[in-house]
């Protein structure tokens, strides 16, 4: 993957540093990411999802060094102290925003965690992006949706896999069971990331990893960044499991609708296979995630039940913001992607 174009002084500075061999560098330019109390009054210009795309992209790039990295960027940057110091500042900024934007659900007794997760999901009243894509979206809009989703889906499951070495016993086995399905049960062609590539090809899109990173807005980056935030910190392992549970518990019906929408628009069985696979797989995964994974983890760590519910709430909140962004832009007759010259490659 190539580094995208910078979106402000922070990414300009960061990308210039990354182009050189690993070295110590000083503090980045001043910005909201340097103040843990920034945006306390809801200033949209400092909002991690919508206003400060410069900082959100910088955080994504810092995290991506733990995944596939970037062409021309030395792999030794991954654990460079200056890079990690910048990442810590960005994480503090992002965590502060999440704490203000996502109400922390009450911590239930450990035995009630599966039921509390189900109630939290049932109470979510965000707009239905899947219903729109099933019945009303045109081909250009469906392609945009797939472009947004490609930022995570082409590395599907990887952020949650960080949790495996941080668990023991039953919750660990449950997470491995879910992840094994995500990775195709040992068959590369059945990996969900590979199935998503087939969807992209069926829509005439570039299926290479990170091809559209420069086109997606901050809210799309935030969806992936929150998974990395939870996955890369052991202290956030409860939130990571709750996030995955919410992810699985809200997947089966929407994916059925995505498949129906793509079929309406002429998508063949190969292009729809990714969505069809998730209709069945995630109906099973949601039970494993809620009971065998989160329920068992809560029984072992009753003090972390609140973290489990908080991780789920973060997933639901960001999905709602994502849906609001896409549907709002489409209602206005505008693209949901960043309006750059590269837009023509999608539309």
From TrEMBL:
Q: Which SMART domains match?
A: Haem_oxygenase_2 (SM01236)
Keywords per UniProt: Membrane, Transmembrane, Transmembrane helix
Q: Where are the transmembrane segments?
A: 209-232
Q: Which Pfam families match?
A: Haem_oxygenas_2 (PF14518)
What name goes with this protein?
Iron-containing redox enzyme
